[in-house]
Amino acid sequence: MGIETGLGLLGSVLGALTSLAAGGMLSTESGRALLRFLYKKPRVASPHSARLVSLTVELQRVSREMDAALLQLEPVIRDRRETVSRLESELLELKTREDDLKVSIEHLENVPLAAAEYFKDFLDSVQSRNRKRDYLLFGLGVVASTVIAVVLQLAFR
Q1: Structure pTM?
Q2: For residue 26, what are the contacts with CB-CB under 8 A and spacing of at least 6?
Q3: Which among 27, 81, 89, 157 would be 20 to 30 A from 10, CA to CA?
Q4: Using the 8-state DSSP alphabet, how is residue 110 labeled?
Q5: For residue range 82-122, what is the model confidence (pLDDT) as tens digits?
Q6: H helices within 27-112, ranges in order?
Q7: What is the sign, positive or negative, of the torsion defined by CA atoms of 38, 40, 46, 49?
Q8: d(C-alpha 93, C-alpha 101), whole Å
Q9: Other beta carbons less than 10 A from residue 31's beta carbon
Q10: Are 10 and 16 in contact (CB under 8 A)?
Q11: How many whole angstroms separate alpha carbon 15 and alpha carbon 23?
Q12: Helix (H/G/I), strand (E/B), else coil: 10
């Protein structure tokens, strides 16, 4: 084996190692950036970055719409809050009134039974007087109609 063959073999091995190192280095992102710089090719955006940009724009648009919707909802929420406060105060007032009425009912329940009996007796006496008057008026009506009937028969005979 000669020197020429040894140098040729060494040159081939060094060339292979250099090619392997350069290929490995150029397959990385920094290596591709170096090639783009050397060949002046613009960087091509990956499909993921384009999708992220469109999603970011869409998110900003939806965020603005949401802010506008919240601004429209604010007066409605304020009105509802005022209505709830007003209803709570009315409910408190009605609760107080209910308690007062319960106390009044309790007082009426404690009215002595003698007073109720007296009232019943009074109404019964008024009704019995009315019954007697009704019977008297009925009897007088019968007598009056009989007298009128007899007088008319005697007058037209």
Answers
A1: 0.35
A2: 32, 34, 35
A3: 27
A4: T
A5: 999 999 999 999 999 999 998 888 887 776 677 777 777 77
A6: 29-39, 47-109
A7: positive
A8: 12
A9: 14
A10: no
A11: 12
A12: helix
